[in-house]
Automatic annotation (TrEMBL):
Transmembrane segments: none annotated. It comes from Halobellus clavatus. PROSITE patterns: TAT (PS51318). This is Glucose/mannose transport system substrate-binding protein. Residues 30-41 have a biased composition (Gly residues). Residues 29-69 are annotated as: Disordered.
Length: 449
């Protein structure tokens, strides 16, 4: 999964780090027991020191791990991860505690409540980068885990940068998802007579939607609107596809072009007004993705966790029943996302929690989990033999990508505070009717605060 050349990898790293560094400047209050109104670096470091020396309740009992993988692509991956840990560490108890809900929303709420109540779990799944700002003051250091396992030598460059806060590692990556994905049902697309590889822009994609609508009985694009995050995520893909990498990165940095943001909303509105199903408002991600599996829809935009669900479906084969296309207009890009496990300071099982963190970064864990989740390892030394052709191609795309822009919706592009504001704009102005003017201004205001 390493790059083809050191120069290319360094170039991508510089472009990515510059933007995420800017995005990380705007933080939000942490979820600490003192209400997040103080502590900062000193609180995190002093608590972490107590934890590492055996304070904070010792290591009795199993390590409690919170995560959000409860269905679709996630359940089988979580089960495989659990089984691999139990095989590798039969002497360490593990209490895997799944918290369902799309986009980590329920998981985030449970974690916040637990941290505010001074009742942290041993570890919890979440996202690195600017997303760590919401937990400033309550995360312990896992520098020793990174050093003892030589993670800096084997992890992709972006993982090294994004898992640090205030000079220390606070988490370990498990896998990398790609966000600029377009999946499709092969039979529906063939019935419509569409050459998917010719789709090189969002406008060409809209033309394909129109063809599906006129030539088949299928929904042109299935889209889950049971929550707002899917639409925010779609807008980000369209923004990249319509306006390109630099414009997207300027937007994340709070210096977005009004005309570019408006153009992305106009294109997204055209898609949603004309080409999604009538029941979209009641669909969650799993139900929406099932429309591809059942042949009820032609296309879906999602992260490549959608492919994890396809892989876990019998008699639904890549290139025969479902296909993949880089989201039109974003060729040469890999919109980056990480699944990681964060380490709370003063957790009740510090030693077992660090055993878990070390395992998360191991080849065994990354193979067990990612092959079913539809993601790829963050380690550069893992064989892709077990992953199947689609994820092997994904790893090649990662290595060859000219740009690896951070995702907007899942923690790497902006802080959780800004992300909340963006989703509120979608909820109030862009769920039908689609108010392009208000949504454009709302998005610009949110990232500039």
């Amino acid at each position: 999964m390493s790059s083809n050349s050191d120069n290319g990898r360094s170039r991508s790293r510089r472009r990515f780090i510059h933007a995420t560094g800017i995005a990380a400047l705007a933080g939000i209050a942490g979820c600490s027991g003192n209400g997040g109104s103080g502590g900062g670096d000193d609180t995190a470091e002093s608590t972490a020191t107590e934890t590492e020396s055996g304070g904070g309740g010792g290591s009795s009992g199993p390590v409690e791990v919170l995560h959000g993988w409860t269905g679709g692509d996630g359940a089988r991956a979580a089960e495989a991860l659990t089984a691999a840990f139990e095989e590798a560490h039969p002497d360490v108890g593990l209490d895997m505690n799944p918290i369902g809900g799309g986009g980590n929303q329920n998981l985030d709420a449970v974690v916040a409540n637990r941290l505010q109540s001074n009742d942290p779990p041993g570890a919890f799944a979440n996202w690195p980068g600017p997303n760590l700002l919401r937990y400033e003051g309550v995360l312990g250091s896992v520098d020793d885990v990174w050093e003892e396992n030589n993670f800096e030598e084997v992890m992709v460059d972006e993982a090294i940068e994004l898992h640090q806060q205030n000079g220390s590692y606070r988490a370990v990556p498990l896998g990398s998802h790609r966000l600029n994905c377009l999946f499709y049902n092969v039979s529906v697309v063939e019935d419509a007579g569409i050459d998917v590889e010719s789709l090189n822009s969002p406008s060409a994609l809209i033309d394909a939607f129109e063809t599906v609508a006129s030539e088949t009985d299928a929904v042109p694009m299935t889209h889950a609107m049971g929550g707002t995050w899917t639409t925010t995520q779609l807008w980000a893909a369209v923004m990249l596809g319509v306006n390109g990498y630099e414009s997207y990165m300027d937007f994340l940095a709070g210096d977005g072009s009004e005309s570019d943001v408006r153009a992305a909303f106009e294109t997204t509105a055209e898609m949603l007004e004309n080409y999604i199903s009538d029941d979209a408002a009641s669909l969650n991600l799993t139900a929406s993705n099932q429309n591809i599996i059942n042949g009820n829809a032609a296309f879906i935009h999602q992260g490549n966790w959608a492919a994890g669900a396809y892989r876990n479906t019998e008699d639904f084969a890549y290139d025969e029943d479902w296909g993949f296309k880089t989201f039109p207009g974003t060729e040469g890009m890999y919109t980056l996302h990480f699944d990681s496990f964060l380490y709370p300071a003063n957790n009740p099982t510090p030693e077992a929690s660090k055993t878990w963190e070390a395992f998360v970064g191991s080849p065994e864990a990354q193979i067990a989990f990612n092959q079913y989740k539809g993601s790829i390892p963050t380690r550069t030394d893992v064989s892709m033999d077990a992953f199947g052709p689609y994820l092997q191609e994904t790893a090649e795309d990662f290595a060859d990508a000219e740009f690896r822009p951070p995702n907007l919706q899942h923690g790497l592009g902006v802080s959780s505070q800004k992300m909340t504001q963006l989703n509120e704009v979608i909820s109030s102005e862009f769920t039908g009717p689609y108010n392009v003017d208000a949504a454009t201004q709302g998005f610009l205001d949110a990232v500039s605060n």
